[in-house]
Hints:
This protein is α/β, with parallel strands linked by helices. It has two domains: about 1-80 and about 195-245, Rossmann fold (3-Layer(aba) Sandwich); about 80-190, Rossmann fold (3-Layer(aba) Sandwich), CATH 3.40.50.1860. It is about 50% helix and about 15% strand. It has twelve helices and nine strands. The strands form three sheets. Strands 5-4-6-7 form a four-stranded parallel sheet, sandwiched between helices. It has a three-stranded parallel sheet with strand order 1-8-9, with no helix packed on it. A two-stranded parallel ribbon has the order 2-3. Helix 4 (about 80-90) crosses helix 6 and helix 4 (about 80-90) crosses helix 10 (about 190-205). It starts with a helix and ends with a strand.
Amino acid sequence: MVKEFLRYLPDYQIIYFGDSARLPYGTKSPRFIRQCSKEIVKFLLKKGAKVIVIACHTASALAADFLRREFKDTPIFEIITPGVSGAIQSTKNKTIGIIGTPGTVNSGVHRRALLKKVADLNVYTESCPLLVPLIEEGWFERKETRLIVKNYLAPLKKKKIDTLILACTHYPLLKKVISFAMGKRVRIINPAKDLALSFRSLLRQNEKLANSLKKSKQHQFFLSDDPYNFRLMSRFCLGKEINPKIVRFN
Length: 250
């Protein structure tokens, strides 16, 4: 997500919080995710954030509406809607696949959002619980990763989908492997890119909101724990090493 916002909204300061101590969210309960999300939003607001962007699909699915009720005066954007819109614009045969963590897939939020917009879509989902650990281990193109991706995607390939939503912010790091497994005819939707583009469009139309945001390249990065491979991931994603501050909630 940060990579896409830096690409398409380079003038605005980003205050990032990664809940590394409590990840993955995809296997946690809705109540736990809402509690964690509320703590994070309160922290970000104290740090000066004016707009909240939920980069996590699981948190978007299970906590976005809750957070909007809790923080009524703060604009809160989730990552699901832009990806859904991008998939609908992309599909030609009205057959869309979704891959995500168990929490995201089991929530059914993407399926409901798609069918609400286009009732006669064919929507198929697959949960891929092993992909996040593989990505965080840096196994982006290992043989084992390719085999696991191929196995996860086989049912979707049989359904002849022509569009695949990557319903986890980690998954774009495996886009090359996923695209190879699905074949050239399947368009891969990265919702983070669609969200960044839609947010940029919104700012161009909403001068008041745009003026409320701080313009600075002095970005702030916070984590709830220091994972051993965060610097590897930051170099891979952003092309440079990030030294985050560690913040632990009680």
